[in-house]
């Protein structure tokens, strides 16, 4: 057991069960406890025939186990004022709970029941199938959302990273209970996931509960190889749906989540199009010219690839001007390092935002499980802040240059 003391009332404990399940417990003060399972499997791990399977499993895992009906599953946490939820991404699935502190056994036993004993009853699958199809339709009706999916389909073309996490209506209708059970057996395994708990209980109590409920798991993950998606030629595409507004993404391929260049990339991304009103693109496109209502930049890093995407929504007539301004900002960042004053202001702002994330207790708890899964250790905001503090203006410039060298890709839905 590895115990790290953060303060008198806050400590982190890492331990591994005999079956290989890695666990992290944060003994944190407060009246709310958070528990969850992070599974190293997502839409990227589906075959072509079963697109949408990871997401469908995430929906239907709540529809019945050997011990509970779907009503009893949802009522288990809600009866004490808590909640049970899940989400799926390209490479991970997270099943998690939030509830008043003091009953960690309730959450841990329920999570174990879901990942070990889900039965995917046929009648429940049929109902949930229609729910997922409605979710797909809602995304298609929202170009501000679906533009991201279409951009990724193009920038990761020919790989498992390309297809929509939800799948499509035809693929969802092909999925069966046997498919769901197979996905669980292949990927919901101790050596392929982590368990996180944020609760004021003593570490010894949490470890004992984890061993009681999860120690029975003895499946081992299916061997797999996630191939690096081939680089595509830069593209500029327009998909005209006769909409009122144009939704555009300008982006490029980057590196993985373990690459040390991610830290200057994070800083560049935040400076260029982060959530604050003083981001460069918000100032240039919205405040100075009124071309857009929304413009933002995001980074999505995976196990062996990644991308940076700049989104804006504008009138059709402003799309070309906005793209030229984005290119101008990137070229300026690539041509010379930021001045010392501007760089320190950008870094101070990002470090302040990192500090604010610690106030979001649920996302902080979830980050523990993700960090343990992907890095084999707990890398919290303080650890990231130390790396950001080491970034230099020249490193930020070099990353901007690499983005341009990779080739900017553009896609507009309108």
How is the topology of this model organized?
Elements lengths: L1 E6 L2 E7 L5 E6 L4 E8 L13 H8 L9 H9 L4 E6 L4 E8 L3 H14 L4 H19 L2 H13 L13 H6 L2 H11 L5 E6 L4 H12 L21 E4 L6 E9 L7 H12 L6 H8 L4 E10 L4 E9 L4 H17 L4 H18 L3 H15 L5 H9 L3 H14 L2 E5 L1
Parallel strand pairs: 3-7, 8-12
Antiparallel strand pairs: 1-2, 2-3, 4-6, 4-7, 5-6, 9-11, 9-12, 10-11
Helix pairs in contact: 1-7, 3-8, 9-15, 10-11, 11-15, 12-14
Indicate how many domains the architecture comprises. 2
Q: Rg, please?
A: 22 Å
Please give the order of strands in the largest beta sheet: 1-2-3-7-4-6-5
End-to-end distance, in Å?
55 Å
Silhouette: globular
CATH superfamily name of the largest domain?
Metalloenzyme, LuxS/M16 peptidase-like
Number of strands: 12
Reported by name, the CATH topology of the largest domain is: Cytochrome Bc1 Complex, Chain A, domain 1
Helix/sheet category: alpha+beta
What's the SSE pattern? EEEEHHEEHHHHHEHEEHHEEHHHHHE
Helix content: 40-55%
- Kindly report the oligomeric state of this protein: single chain
Low-confidence stretches: none
Structural notes for this entry:
The structure is a single chain. By secondary structure, this protein is of the alpha+beta class. The chain has two domains: 2-214, Metalloenzyme, LuxS/M16 peptidase-like (Cytochrome Bc1 Complex, Chain A, domain 1), CATH 3.30.830; 236-413, Cytochrome Bc1 Complex, Chain A, domain 1, CATH 3.30.830.10. The protein is built from 15 helices and twelve strands. The protein has helices at residues 53-60, 70-78, 104-117, 122-140, 143-155, 169-174, 177-187, 203-214, 262-273, 280-287, 319-335, 340-357, 361-375, 381-389, 393-406; strands spanning 2-7, 10-16, 22-27, 32-39, 83-88, 93-100, 193-198, 236-239, 246-254, 292-301, 306-314, 409-413. The protein has a seven-stranded mixed sheet with strand order 1-2-3-7-4-6-5, sandwiched between helices. Strand 2 (10-16) and strand 3 form a beta hairpin. Helix 3 runs parallel beside helix 8, helix 10 (280-287) runs antiparallel to helix 11 and helix 11 (319-335) crosses helix 15 (393-406). 42% of the residues are buried. The model has no long low-confidence stretch (mean pLDDT 94).
